[in-house]
Automatic annotation (TrEMBL):
<feature type="compositionally biased region" description="Acidic residues">
    <location>
        <begin position="39"/>
        <end position="51"/>
    </location>
</feature>
<feature type="domain" description="Orc1-like AAA ATPase">
    <location>
        <begin position="151"/>
        <end position="252"/>
    </location>
</feature>
<dbReference type="InterPro" id="IPR041664">
    <property type="entry name" value="AAA_16"/>
</dbReference>
<comment type="function">
    <text>Component of the origin recognition complex (ORC) that binds origins of replication. DNA-binding is ATP-dependent, however specific DNA sequences that define origins of replication have not been identified so far. ORC is required to assemble the pre-replication complex necessary to initiate DNA replication.</text>
</comment>
<protein>
    <recommendedName>
        <fullName>Origin recognition complex subunit 1</fullName>
    </recommendedName>
</protein>
<keyword id="KW-0067">ATP-binding</keyword>
<dbReference type="InterPro" id="IPR027417">
    <property type="entry name" value="P-loop_NTPase"/>
</dbReference>
<feature type="region of interest" description="Disordered">
    <location>
        <begin position="1"/>
        <end position="132"/>
    </location>
</feature>
<dbReference type="InterPro" id="IPR050311">
    <property type="entry name" value="ORC1/CDC6"/>
</dbReference>
<dbReference type="Pfam" id="PF13191">
    <property type="entry name" value="AAA_16"/>
</dbReference>
<feature type="compositionally biased region" description="Acidic residues">
    <location>
        <begin position="62"/>
        <end position="83"/>
    </location>
</feature>
<keyword id="KW-0238">DNA-binding</keyword>
<comment type="subunit">
    <text>ORC is composed of six subunits.</text>
</comment>
<keyword id="KW-0547">Nucleotide-binding</keyword>
<keyword id="KW-0235">DNA replication</keyword>
<feature type="compositionally biased region" description="Polar residues">
    <location>
        <begin position="7"/>
        <end position="16"/>
    </location>
</feature>
<keyword id="KW-0539">Nucleus</keyword>
Length: 268
């Protein structure tokens, strides 16, 4: 800084040197710190040279070793098997010193499912085993997936349902019946059994033919979708809820001489 100030002064003036003790002490401290920094840089550079050789030095050392081996081969002639093995081990040890590249990470790809995948259940290799004693038979009949041949303790309910639906089919009139009860008492099973018996009676021409349609309310997000499903089951036509309700109203309001009776079961 003093030199820069001296250079910046005009040529006519004489340079002044500060004789203050504080300025001299500060300049001496700065010199000491600069000397310490230079010493540390020299030490760091010496350590790096000792412990961390550069790639060029490693390559040059390996090339020098190969040249030495080639010269020895030319001078000594063909080597024996033991010498060849020793040279190979020497080369492998020298190559082991050189740092290798990090291996690439292998990412496992998940298999993609096909677009048109249809789930299938494998067929049985052997038929289902029949119950051998009374306890196994009772267990299979009490299972939730078993369909009984008859409905015990539901004779009165079966008779009420059968007589109601049969009278409407015979007279060709409309009507509605509401069936209520706690879950698991056999409401749906009783109605299905009644419809099975009525369809059998219609097949043998004991009663007029009818059409049976069943929809499940638990599969709908909106009650108005019932109109859409009923219209689709009857005619195969797709429409919105309001339009389907209007078409059903028109279909069942207009009288016709030979109209087929429709039995609609709305479960849940």
């Amino acid at each position: 800084a003093e030199e820069e100030n001296e250079n910046s002064l005009p040529a006519t003036g004489t340079p002044r040197s500060s004789k203050r003790k504080s300025a001299l002490m500060v300049s001496s401290r700065i010199k000491k710190q600069l000397n310490l920094l230079d010493v540390q840089e020299d030490l760091n550079s010496d350590d790096d040279d000792e412990f961390l050789p550069s790639k060029k030095e490693l390559q040059s050392s390996s090339e020098e070793e190969e040249d030495e081996d080639a010269e020895e081969e030319e001078e000594n002639g063909p080597d024996s098997d033991d010498e060849v093995v020793a040279k190979k081990s020497r080369r492998s040890s020298s190559s082991a010193r050189t740092p290798r590249k990090t291996p690439r990470k292998t990412t496992l790809s998940t298999p993609r499912t096909p677009r048109h995948a249809t789930p299938s259940i494998p067929s049985r290799s052997q038929p289902a085993r029949r119950p051998t004693n009374v306890l196994e038979e009772a267990r299979t009949r009490l299972h939730v997936s078993s369909v009984p041949e008859s409905l015990p303790c539901r004779e009165q309910e079966f008779q009420d349902l059968y007589s109601f639906v049969e009278s409407k089919i015979m007279d060709g009139t409309g009507g509605c019946m509401y069936i209520s009860g706690v879950p698991g008492t056999g409401k749906t099973a009783t109605v299905h059994e009644v419809m099975r018996c009525l369809q059998h009676a219609a097949d043998v021409e004991e009663i007029p033919p009818f059409r049976f349609i069943e929809i499940n309310g638990m599969k709908m997000t909106d009650p108005h979708q019932a109109y859409v499903q009923v219209l689709q089951e009857l005619t195969g036509q797709k429409a919105t809820a309001d339009h389907a309700a209007a078409l059903l109203e028109k279909r069942f309001s207009n009288p016709a001489p030979r109209k087929e009776t429709t039995v609609l079961l709305v479960d849940e």
